[in-house]
Each structure stands twice: as C-alpha cells, then as structure tokens.
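Board notes (copied after class):
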Amino acid sequence: MPAAPAIVATALPADAPARLHIPLKARLAPFGPVLLVFLVAAFFGALLGTPGPGRQQVAESVRSPDAPALKRLDDIRFRLRDDLASASTADEQANLAARLAVAYGHAADNLSSPVVVSAAQDASAAYVSLEDAVQAGDEDAYEGARARVEAAEAKIASELSPSSARARRG
C-alpha cells in the first residue's frame, strides 16, 4: 500500500503582528518640498497678480451707482425714440412723447449726478412740450418743442458718454 501523506501542523500566531505606527510628521515629510514650492508660487502669484492702487484701475473697477438707472433709461429711450420716429398718427406721437417724458422723469428721480439729473429733467420737459404741441396741432409749437427735444437728447448723449462719466467720477 502506498504510504499516506503526512500532515504537518503549522503553528498559527496567537496575535496578529503589531502594525508599525508611523508618525504623521514622518508620513508628510516626503511632501514637504512640494508644499514649500506651492506656497512660494502662491505667494508670488498673489503678489504679481494683485492690481496696484492706480487711480485708473480703481475708477474703472468701481461701478457707478447711477449705472442701473442709466441702463434702464437707455433700454427704454432708444426703443421709444425709434417708435416715435415711425409713428404715423398724432395720437401715437403724443403717446410716445408722454412715455419718453415719464421715462426721463423716472430716470431723474433715480440718478445721483446733478448734471445728469438736470439733463434728464430737461429731456422730460422737452418731451412734455412735444406732447402738448402734437395734441394741440400747433406747427410752430411743434417745431420749437422738437428743437428742445433735440437739444435735450444731445445734452443727455453728451453727459452719458464714457469721457463725461470718467470726468464726473474723477
């Protein structure tokens, strides 16, 4: 008969081997040079990327408190002026002139620059006179009101130009 295989008993450890506890400092040591390079790069990036205190940079980055009111006015006035130019009846013209007068009046109420407020008030009054002239059917009054509207619109355009805005801020 063939011989039976011999069974060899292996000894099992009584306890699991103790894990080596590597201190946190020792585990982070390999990353030290990378961390140092990152910190130096961040420092110089912040130093070089920060704008200086130049007046021009500050002036351009600060948004005027009038900007939202002026944007609303521009959105309305250009559309209504185009509609007024293509209006075919006296009633349409009077209605659009009244709406432009109200738009300029609201803008004047919401603006802070005295020069722009004055220009908006002048434009509002000019459009009221245009509305009155159209409703009255008075050609002479209409021509005078139209000249006032053109002058007021030119003043508004001048005051709202970027160079005028910088001069008011500066």
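Comment from the instructor: The first helix runs from residue 24 to 28. The radius of gyration is 39 Å.
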